[in-house]
Amino acid sequence: MDKTIIEKAKNIELLLMDVDGVLTDGKMYFIPQQNGKTQEFKSFNAVDGIGIRMLALFNISSGIITGRESEDAQERAELLAMKYAYQGFLSKTKPLEEILKDAGVKPENTAYIGDDLTDIPVLKKVGLACAPNNAIKEARDISHFVTEKVGGEGAVREVCDLILKSKGHWDKVMEYVDSAHWPNIEKRKIKIVKYSEYSRINS
């Protein structure tokens, strides 16, 4: 592992990420409903979820900034004790600025995982830019860390483990493993912002 990446990861206090293609494999499932409409469903990976919850154990906050609005994504964010869920934002720099201000965290102490064109402006601004192995070339080229796993298949977990190990928390994680005792994570108040509502308020 490049020492520069480890040093960057060591300073991370906040992990933000895209959803489609990062927390998921990018596929979208539309199930017909009795009312004639369709319901969108997403598939998440439990391995990624454990990584995000481990971050919370060590007071490292997390959140999503995604271009689509999805009840599944919001529920997943809440279950994983995330602090931020910004949905429907194709332009992600404004959400990033708001989150950093709310969290009191500097860009250099923030990591972001993105896989596509809309993620690039954020990847350029944070201290640790990360991309799944199957992200578009442009996203991979500007990222400090490219995971071995693809989106939806453990890419997020790789970043979580990198942060925890770089910050010296891994021995404590293994203590939890060996004792088979994991501290409870208190349900956090999550800031949910949807562009469809945000745009009306700020227009």
Essential attributes:
Rossmann fold; 9 helices; 9 strands
Percent strand equals 15-25%
Number of strands: 9
At the fourth level of CATH, the homologous superfamily is HAD superfamily/HAD-like
Measure the end-to-end span: 46 Å
- Element order: H for helix, E for strand: HEEEHEHEHEHEHEHHEH
Largest beta sheet: strand ordering: 8-7-6-1-4-5-9
Helical proportion?
A: 25-40%
Principal-axes shape call: globular
CATH fold name, please? Rossmann fold
Secondary structure category: alpha/beta
Please compute the radius of gyration using only Cα atoms. Answer: 17 Å
Count of helical stretches:
9
Question: What is the CATH architecture annotation?
Answer: 3-Layer(aba) Sandwich
Q: How many domain units?
A: 1
Highest CATH level, the class: Alpha Beta
Q: Which stretches are poorly predicted, pLDDT < 50 over at least 5 residues?
A: none
**Average pLDDT number:** 94
Query: Mind describing the biggest β-sheet?
Result: 7 strands, parallel
